[in-house]
Structures are given as C-alpha cells and as structure tokens.
C-alpha cells in the first residue's frame, strides 16, 4: 500500500488477522490452508498477481506468497486504496461479529470478495481519513526490539540468583544424594531437593523478583538459560546431575566422535567452583573446565 511500485514476499506463520487472532470459517479445510487462502486474498484485494511458492526450509510452515506485479494500471491506485480501506473495515466487523454472535455478517469464500456486515457502511471518520491513516489505532512495534529473555541481564545479577537458588536446593530437607556405583565407586554427591518455581520465588527478595518479572518467562527463563546448573521439569527446579546424561552416540563418524571427545572447554564448571562436593564428573568427562588451565 506504500506505493504502486511496491512488491512483497510473505511467509505466513501465526494465525492472525488485522485486529487479533484469525477466526476459522470453514471446517472443510485445515486451519493452515484456510489461513493461507486468507493471506492470498489480502494480496488479491490489494491488486497483486499473487504467486504461491513452497520454500526448501526445515519447517512445517513453508508456503510463501510473492506479489511482483499489479492487476490494475497506476491511474486506478486511488480506487484500489479505497477498496483496501473497505476490506480492513470489513475485517474489523468480522472480528467483532466472531466475538459477539449477536452481530450478523455474511462472508463470501472468493479470493477477490470482501467480508462485509449486512447493510453497513464504513464509519465516516475512517472513510475521510483513509488517505492519511491506513488503519486507525494501529501501533507498529519499535524499530529496535528490546531483548527480554534474561540474556541481557547483568552477569553479576544472574550469578547471584543462580548461586542463591542452587544453595536453596542443596540445603533443602530432606537432602538427596546420588551414589555412583560404577567401578566400585561409592562416593555420594549431594543432588539436593527439587522445589516448585513458586517455592523458589518465595525465597528471593522483592527487588530480584521485580527485575525478573520485566523479562519474558521471568525466573523460569533465567533458570533454563543456566542449564549447566539447573533442570526445570514440569514446573519443578532440580540440580542438574550430569552423570545421568546419555553418553555420545557411537554411530557418529570417527572424526565427529574425536571432535566431541576433545570439545573445547570455553567456560568454567559451576559445580567445580561452587558445589560443596565439587563436580560429579571427572575432569576428562566434564564438558566444562575444572580450573582456568583447562580453558581453551
């Protein structure tokens, strides 16, 4: 809609309309196919020759649409623009009608048709401003999207939370220990207790929780990011016991097995530094460095 010379490529994924989630209207098609038809319809309404292609990517949603040429001459651009405005307004009416079944509407299943309310016209104020405001109330996201997956939190803050939660699990009662009986070794390693995310949160101070709540997923995301130390399963937090990890597959080619065995240790082992019993694995079996001399 920005200009007559505009072309577009779109890879439909999440099922959204202009004003919220896309509502299904046909049971004979799959949800994905119906949504693809809707996206193609948008291209047709906007006056494009819509081409469909299937990308060679490892995804279940790989059908794309390309609009490279128009179905009308430049002189008719104003007429098509008003048609687009009418289409957007009709989609809003459809969204309201789906939410409130007391509002009647009819929907034609042709790609070049418009979904419209019975005996209704677009509001006057939106018709008058169609040339300057394409979609009243639309708020685009910021050009620079803020990272809120706990990855940008200060390292000192993350380390403090990790140590606090780990000590909480290790000191919780009853204490769990895990014996390694392989090769006659009966040494026990404190595995700690598992606690729910709520129980863990109750032991953190208000300032810490406030900072975590501003991130997507909060405490759970931070703990999952630190998978070297924790496992979060079914809403419960556990100390990660690396002895329970499955050994590397022996079906790998010799070169890959050798590279895996000689993996570069770029981070220090948290357990070697902080756990009261040290690391549960010997240095040669641990994927993390037992001391700075092992860092590569």
Would you mind describing this structure in some detail?
- The chain has 296 residues and is α+β, with helices and mostly antiparallel strands.
- It folds into 3 domains: 89 residues, no CATH class; 70 residues; 54 residues, no CATH class.
- Helix content is 32%, strand content 14%.
- A 3-stranded antiparallel sheet has the order 1-5-4, covered by helices on one side. It has a 3-stranded antiparallel sheet with strand order 10-12-11.
- A hairpin with a 2-residue loop joins β11 and β12.
- It is elongated and about 80 Å long.
- The two termini are 53 Å apart.
- Its EC number is 2.1.1.211.
- Keywords: Cytoplasm, Metal-binding, Methyltransferase, S-adenosyl-L-methionine, Transferase, tRNA processing, Zinc, Zinc-finger.
- It catalyses: uridine(44) in tRNA(Ser) + S-adenosyl-L-methionine = 2'-O-methyluridine(44) in tRNA(Ser) + S-adenosyl-L-homocysteine + H(+).
- This is tRNA (uracil-O(2)-)-methyltransferase.
- It is found in: Cytoplasm.
How are the SSEs placed, and which strands pair?
Elements: E1 8-10, E2 16-17, E3 20-21, H1 31-45, E4 48-54, E5 63-70, H2 77-99, E6 105-106, E7 116-117, H3 124-128, H4 155-171, E8 177-179, E9 188-190, E10 195-196, H5 197-202, H6 206-213, H7 218-225, E11 230-233, E12 236-239, H8 254-261, H9 270-274
Antiparallel strand pairs: 1-5, 2-3, 4-5, 6-7, 8-9, 10-12, 11-12
């Amino acid at each position: 809609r920005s200009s007559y010379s505009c072309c577009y490529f779109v890879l439909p994924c999440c099922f959204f309309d202009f004003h919220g989630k896309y509502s299904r209207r046909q049971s004979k098609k799959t949800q994905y196919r119906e949504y693809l038809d809707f996206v193609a319809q948008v291209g047709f309404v906007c006056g494009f020759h819509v081409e469909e292609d299937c990308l060679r990517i490892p995804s279940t949603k790989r059908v794309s649409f390309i609009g490279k040429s128009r179905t009308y001459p430049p002189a008719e651009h104003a007429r098509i623009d008003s048609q687009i405005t009418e289409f957007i307004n009709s989609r809003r009416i459809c969204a309201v009608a789906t939410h409130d079944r007391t509002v009647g509407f009819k929907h034609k299943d042709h790609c070049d048709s418009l979904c419209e309310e019975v005996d209704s016209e677009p509001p006057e104020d939106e018709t008058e401003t169609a040339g300057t405001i394409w979609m009243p109330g639309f708020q685009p996201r910021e050009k620079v999207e803020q990272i809120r997956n706990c990855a940008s939190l200060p390292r000192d803050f993350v380390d403090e939370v990790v140590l606090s939660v780990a000590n909480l699990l290790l000191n919780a009662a009853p204490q769990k220990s895990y014996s390694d009986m392989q090769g006659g070794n009966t040494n026990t390693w404190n595995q700690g207790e598992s606690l729910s995310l709520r129980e863990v949160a109750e032991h953190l101070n208000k300032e810490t929780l406030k900072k975590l709540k501003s991130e997507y997923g909060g405490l759970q995301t931070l703990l999952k990011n630190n998978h070297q130390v924790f496992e979060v399963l079914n809403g419960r937090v556990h100390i990660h016991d690396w002895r329970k990890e499955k050994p590397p597959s022996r079906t790998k080619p010799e070169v890959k097995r050798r590279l895996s065995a000689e993996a570069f240790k770029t981070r220090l082992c948290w357990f070697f530094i902080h756990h009261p019993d040290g690391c549960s694995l010997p240095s040669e079996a641990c994927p993390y460095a037992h001391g700075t001399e092992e860092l590569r």
